[in-house]
Design goal:
Shape of chain A: globular
Structural class of chain B: mainly alpha
Oligomer: heterodimer
CATH superfamily of the largest domain in chain A: NADP-dependent oxidoreductase domain
Number of strands of chain A: 10
Number of domains of chain A: 2
Helix content of chain B: 40-55%
Order of helices and strands of chain A: HHEEEHEHHEHEHHEHEHHEHHEHHHHH
CATH architecture of the largest domain in chain A: Alpha-Beta Barrel
CATH class of the largest domain in chain A: Alpha Beta
Strand order of the largest sheet of chain A: 3-4-5-6-7-8-9-10
Strand content of chain A: 5-15%
Radius of gyration of chain A: 23 Å
Structural class of chain A: alpha/beta
CATH topology of the largest domain in chain A: TIM Barrel
Number of domains of chain B: 2
Helix content of chain A: 40-55%
Strand content of chain B: 5-15%
Largest sheet of chain B: 2 strands, antiparallel
Strand order of the largest sheet of chain B: 1-4
Radius of gyration of chain B: 26 Å
Number of helices of chain A: 18
Shape of chain B: elongated
Distance between the termini of chain A: 54 Å
Largest interface: A-B, 33 and 27 residues
């Protein structure tokens, strides 16, 4: 179903909570200033899983960026111990405010996420929440049948439970230097018979819903859905990347990615509920270019920029829950507010966001989320720092532009070059990239890293030549 | 009066020269570059006949005023001499001119200059000696200050100061600079202008013109009470008060004797001088030697600390042994450089890409040479040609630079990562500004790979390929100098 069409269907239901809809009919008008929008004055929105009847909160708690001792998250400081007290506090708050879906994995936080999640959740009745975890595939040493079964049994132990509500094949569609996406998928889930074993566990009641999370090669995604159609395997749910940028522009951002619109429609027309990841696209939709932030604030001065993205991700009815990896209590509170209840995106707002997406796509940003999987570069480059500086210069409107003779241009050029040297030492800058491409297969965003680095290098070189 | 004026001019000169050598002030060479160009020896090398004529004329009229107010090494010695005077007052006495020694030094210098034996010329030439001291000892201190300001800037999101690399360009030059400072400093504290009046070739040359200058220090025998204060305070050891004579071949017109005479018995001119001077506080910078050494080591430790755990360790590049040294575009050839360069280090300290450094080779001693471990000769930069006071590096435009083939790239198969690491590369090709490098098919041990091939006709020797080559410590492509630059 087309998104516009879909929004028309749900439009009626949305009116009750939306002040915006009535304010505007004209799709092209961008500035109907609507004040006094107050979110978070009601109950959490829930969606129903058609397979089990689970009432799942539209906000799901992603347990991959748990807070650690000494500040920050377990993703940035993987060696620090998880701040269990803070995790408990946040989980308590989440449950208290209606959040009941907790998504972890044996891989998260260097393997410490499941343990911490287990401790926090075990303090509450088992029927007050749903646990999602994964059959992860981070290292070939875990691919054997025995190691995989151990992984599942260990998840139960760490999570202090006898059943998993939602179990996912972790990140299908990937490939490595040695194995293409089909070979990798078969090696991980088929050849060792583990998928069949998981089906057995489901039949035995130890798994309530079986699904997969997807990144990368769409052929694998299509194949799994074809199996579903053929009755070979039944998918109770699937986890996909969806946000207002990926909706139409995933392949524009990156040729190897697939538009979220396609991914969602494929699931929805089969009645498979979608779990959403990356609603903020690695935080990018929370830190937008200044001029775009301004346009959003002109519409709704009190709405945080990130809320537009969360509302968008939660709007389609086929979505079961939207995952957010919340490190800080403030993130949690803001997200709870956003979804209590969800104020669906109206047709007019949808057009507004699509237009914004179009503008963002035109910005030559690199969709790097600084996960550092590409590092260390064998030739010494600091890849994420180069991308971060470049993106920051664009989103903060600091790129030299306009008349090259003008003083402003000269100043901006100087700031850019000095700033680059300050942020990335000369020996680690893009001009040292030899294009060996050892980094790219590790990138979950499928960024063609050498290509992007060379693009940035060309830009920097051109600026230097103006000196 | 004469003394005050002399000190004022000295302060101006030494400030300008030092600022120029340190590179302080926006495009300082544009407004202060003249102070290097009126230096006697650089003017000879640059064949600036106008400047030379002016300096000789000035000497014929005023005596060796040049040695007091233009020569930075002379001014530096005066500072030490002034300190020496604080320790021991009235310490000088008349000594006869050792003309034979002066002449021997001058002849040796001229012969060394003609045959191009740089160690002699660059060592004793005064402007070069001073600039080396500033460049080797004070510049690192200034750079540290600069980097400190840059870090404050960075913390406040300002962009006035850029961090620069502080590194030892040549140990030899550093040692020579320290030795020059220590020896000349000690000599000046003990015997004033002894160096200027025996060793210095410029002093000797000028003394040939200053034996009978128009304006000179003259005794008024009627007023003289034979107190001897003039002789005891003549740092040139040029006054014989008993005879009432001044040796104008060595007098540097400092005016100290006039200031010291309580009886108004000395006058600069033919007649009627008046004087009532007071000692003027100038500068102190004797402590700087020790501080400079300590500072350099601290700077080295700082660069190492920046390598952190999440990143691959980058091995430093090692300079290859080049059969022919590379000299900057505009210098025509190493031989031309040898003839015209006084090794003042102005180009070295001005090079923003850390390419130039003093040569350690005997025949090109301390004259600039190029290497590409820290950067390469960027196409938009012609800084060295702009600052050179001697014309050893001729002024060239950016366009002319692209036609100066200073060297040519050579591929070293055994170092190339394409073959050693089995990865695809081509960074040299990508960054060659003249398109002289093409990646071509090559039958390696593990199948066909792409390796660089150099078109020597297009290569200008800028070193982009050598600097950006991923092979470490030795690059797989390096620049070999051209004996004389190919133009066109």
């Amino acid at each position: 179903m087309d998104r516009r069409e879909f929004i028309k269907h749900i439009g009626g239901a949305a009116v009750a909570t939306s002040v915006v809809l009535s304010a505007c009919k004209d799709n092209n008008s961008e500035t109907p200033i609507v004040k006094d929008i107050i979110d978070g004055q009601g109950e959490m929105t829930y969606r129903t899983n058609p397979n089990t009847g689970d009432k799942v909160s539209i906000l799901g708690y992603g347990m991959m960026r748990l807070p650690v001792e000494g500040g920050g998250s377990g993703r940035d400081n993987p060696d620090s111990e998880i701040d269990q007290e803070m995790v408990n506090e946040e989980v308590d708050y989440a449950l208290e405010h209606g959040v009941n879906y907790f998504d972890t994995s044996p891989a998260y936080c260097k393997g410490k996420s499941e343990h911490a999640t287990g401790i926090a959740l075990a303090r509450h009745p088992r029927d007050s929440y749903y646990i999602a975890t994964k059959m992860s595939n981070f290292s070939p040493s875990t691919w054997s049948r025995e190691a995989s079964i151990n992984m599942f049994e260990n998840s139960l132990k760490e999570l202090q439970t006898d059943h998993i509500d939602y179990l996912l094949l972790h990140s299908i569609g990937g490939s490595t230097k040695e194995l293409d996406s089909h070979e990798l998928f078969n090696a991980r889930f088929i050849d060792n018979g583990i998928l069949d074993w998981l089906v057995e566990q489901k039949n035995a009641g130890r798994i309530r819903n079986l699904g997969f999370s997807y990144h990368g090669d769409v052929a694998i995604y299509d194949m799994l859905l074809q199996w579903h159609d053929e009755g070979k395997y039944h998918w109770d749910f699937a986890q996909i990347e969806l946000n207002y940028l990926d909706w139409n522009y995933a392949d524009e951002l990156n040729a190897r990615n697939t538009d979220a619109r396609y991914l969602y429609d494929e699931l929805n027309r089969r009645g498979i509920p979608s779990v959403i990841m990356e609603p903020l696209l690695g935080g990018r939709l929370a830190s937008l270019p200044d001029h775009i932030v301004k346009r959003m604030q002109e519409r709704e001065p009190e709405t945080p920029v990130a809320r537009w993205a969360f509302r968008f991700a939660g709007t389609p009815e086929g979505i079961l829950t939207v995952l957010s990896g919340m490190t800080y209590m403030e993130h949690l509170k803001q997200n709870v507010e956003t979804y209590s209840p969800l104020r669906p995106i109206s047709e007019e707002e949808d057009a507004f966001l699509m237009k914004i997406a179009e503008e963002i796509v035109e910005l030559p940003l690199v969709p790097c989320t600084a996960c550092n999987y590409c590092m260390p570069c064998p030739y010494g480059l600091n890849i994420p720092a180069i991308f971060a500086f470049y993106n920051k210069s664009i989103t903060e409107d600091k790129m030299p532009a306009g008349n090259r003779e003008a003083r402003e241009y000269h100043e901006a050029r100087k700031r850019f070059l000095i700033g680059l040297d300050r942020n990335v030492p000369g020996m680690r800058q893009a001009n040292h990239c030899i294009g060996c491409n050892q980094c790219a297969p590790h990138c979950p965003q499928n960024i063609e890293i050498p290509k992007q680095l060379q693009r940035i290098d060309d830009y920097v070189e051109q600026l230097k030549l103006q000196g | 009066m004469l003394r005050k004026l002399r000190i004022l001019l000295q302060v101006v000169t030494i400030t300008l020269v030092t600022l120029l050598l340190l590179g302080i002030g926006f495009q300082v060479h544009l407004w202060a570059g003249w102070v290097a160009k009126i230096q006697f020896f650089p003017a000879i090398l640059a064949l600036s006949f106008g400047v030379l004529a002016l300096l000789i004329a000035a000497t014929l009229i005023f005596g060796r005023l040049y040695c007091s107010v233009v020569c930075p090494l002379g001014i530096m010695q005066d500072i030490f001499s002034w300190i020496g005077g604080k320790i021991k007052k009235n310490r000088f006495y008349y000594a006869k001119e050792k003309l034979w020694l002066r002449m021997v030094c001058l002849v040796v210098f001229i012969i060394a200059m003609i045959i191009g034996f740089a160690p002699v010329t660059t060592l004793i030439e005064p402007y070069s000696a001073y600039s080396r001291i500033v460049n080797s000892l004070f510049k690192p201190l200034y750079d540290m200050l600069n980097n400190w300001l840059a870090s404050i800037d960075a913390a406040n999101d300002r962009y006035n100061f850029t961090e620069v690399q502080i590194w030892m360009r040549s140990v030899t030059t550093f040692v020579v600079a320290i030795a020059t400072l220590v020896i000349l400093g000690a000599l000046a504290m003990w015997k004033g202008r002894l160096y200027c009046n025996t060793v210095c070739p410029v002093g000797t040359l000028l003394s040939l013109c200053s034996r009978y200058p128009l304006l000179r220090v003259r005794f008024d025998k009627d007023k003289c009470k034979n107190c001897g204060m003039c002789e005891k305070n003549c740092k040139a050891q040029a006054i014989d008060f008993k005879e009432g004579k001044v040796d104008y071949a060595r007098c540097v017109v400092c005016g100290d004797c006039l200031a010291k005479c309580k009886f108004d018995a000395l006058h600069y001119t033919a007649k009627k001088p008046t004087s009532q001077p007071k000692p003027v506080d100038t500068e102190r910078r004797a402590f700087l030697v020790g501080a400079a050494v300590a500072g350099t080591t601290a700077a080295l430790a700082q660069t190492q600390m920046k390598v952190d755990g999440g990143l691959a360790v980058i091995e430093d590049k090692t300079a290859p042994k080049r059969k022919t040294p590379i000299t900057p575009p505009g210098s025509v050839s190493a031989r031309n450089m040898q003839k015209h360069c006084t090794a003042c280090q102005l180009c070295v300290s001005s090079c923003p890409n850390n390419v130039l450094r003093p040569s350690t080779d005997m025949m090109h001693f301390m004259q600039p040479t190029m290497s590409f471990e820290r950067g390469y000769c960027r196409p938009e930069c012609t800084r060295c040609s702009e600052v050179c006071p001697t014309g050893a590096i001729k002024l060239i435009t950016r366009e002319e630079k692209t036609m100066q083939h200073i060297g040519h790239a050579v591929w070293i198969k055994d170092n190339c990562v394409v073959l050693t690491d089995g990865v695809s590369c081509g960074n040299c090709e990508r960054h060659c500004p003249t398109g002289a490098i093409t990646m071509v098919d090559y039958e390696g041990p593990n199948g066909t790979v792409q390796v660089p091939a150099v078109d020597e006709n297009k290569c200008i020797g800028c070193g982009a390929c050598e600097n950006l080559c991923p092979a470490r410590p030795f690059s797989a492509i390096y620049v070999e100098g051209n004996v004389s630059h190919h133009i066109g």
